[in-house]
Structure formats: C-alpha cells, structure tokens
Amino acid sequence: MFGYGDPRGRPELRAALADHLARARGVYASPENVLICAGISHGLQILSKVLADRGAKNIAVESYGLERYWELLAAAGLQTLPLPLDTHGTDPVPPVDTDAVLLTPAHQFPVGTTLQRDRRTAVVDWARRTGGLILEDDYDGEFRFDRQSVGALQGLDPNCVVYLGTASITLAPGLRLAWMAVPPVLAEQAAATKG
Ligand SMILES: Cc1ncc(COP(=O)(O)O)c(C=O)c1O
C-alpha cells in the first residue's frame, strides 16, 4: 500500500468513488476510468496536457470563472474563449471549431445558476456532433441548498464528458483530494499523463 502503485490511485478508493458517484451524482463510471488527483486544478492540468497532445487548440470557459484555471489551461498551450452569460446562466454551446468546454453545471461559478435541461442537452449534442470534450467541474454538486437535486451532466453521455469532483468544499481544501471520471477512450492517456 505504501509503494508507488497504480498512477490512477488506490483501487479500493476508485471502486468506492465509482459506487458513491453513481448513487450521489448519477455519474456513470467504472473504477478503471476513475483517476485520483490532488484537486480539480491538478485534474485540469492533466486534462489540458491530454487535450494539447491530441491536437486541441482551444477551450471555452465560463465568464467570470476562476482566472487561475484559465492560466493553467493556457500554460498547456490552449487558447481560452469566454462563453456568454445571461439571466439563465452560461450559454454552454461554443462555436463548432472549439475543441473543449469547461463548465460548472451544478452551480455556475461564481453566479450560482444551475444549468437547465435544454442547455445540458444542447451542449452534449454539440460534443457528439463535433467530437468536442466537455469538462464538468462539479466542485460543490453535493450541496443542493433549497433546490431539487440535479445530477451530473456526465450521466447524459459518459463518452464525451469528463467529470471532476473534489473534497475541497465538502471536507477541506488542505486534503488536496479530488477525482475524475474519464471517458474510456481517454482513460489510458490520462493515467499515463498523471503517472
Ligand atoms: C469553481 C471551482 N472549481 C473547483 C474548486 C476546487 O478546486 P480544488 O479541487 O483544486 O481545490 C473550487 C474551489 O473553490 C472552485 O471554486
């Protein structure tokens, strides 16, 4: 247990997370596709390298989001393109020639709106149509406040959405513990990049 082990993380933890995420967030993942990382920021570092290595040039991000994430994506060579924001939150469908999109569907950061059903379907349709990748930052999806719980976007199509979760909000950011559920086609490359 104290050796270097599998770069994806301990198999017991990945199995427990796959089970928990299915029940709590409607995430569809097998333990093989779960990757433990040291924060969503670390997960984005891994994914931005995976995207750049696959030839991606740009990624759409939410207006008023976290600048340090945009810097991190830019450091991997990706151009960040802001998505428009209206009274319903982010309009998540980027132009067709966009390679990926980073979203906070549960509660748009920092505005707090929940991505509505028609927009969820529209962005998944975009990903299916263009081969684009959706990165779902589910930083506080466990909290539903006074609203009905909304499951993760990843459940709509686990082949084109990477789900990212963290213990930073529910427990403490000092833990540096987070997880990703990666589409099967990217799982090996993401594990090798982290390794
Ligand atoms: C939008 C957003 N994503 C993710 C995180 C958590 O990041 P990490 O897991 O790297 O601590 C936060 C924390 O404040 C956040 O505001």
Salient structural properties:
alpha/beta, single chain, globular, binds pyridoxal-5'-phosphate, 195 residues, five-stranded mixed sheet, 19% strand, two-stranded parallel sheet, 9 strands, 5 helices
Notes on the structure:
With 195 residues, the chain is α/β, with parallel strands linked by helices. 32% of the residues lie in helices and 19% in strands. The chain is built from five helices and nine strands; from the N terminus they run αβαβαββββαβββα. It has helices at 11-25, 40-53, 67-75, 117-130, 184-194, and strands spanning 34-37, 58-62, 79-83, 85-86, 89-90, 100-103, 133-137, 161-166, 178-181. Strands 1-9-8-7-6 form a five-stranded mixed β-sheet, sandwiched between helices. β4 and β5 (89-90) form a beta hairpin. α2 packs across α5 (184-194). The model has no long low-confidence stretch (mean pLDDT 96). The structure holds pyridoxal-5'-phosphate. The site of pyridoxal-5'-phosphate has 12 residues, from α2.
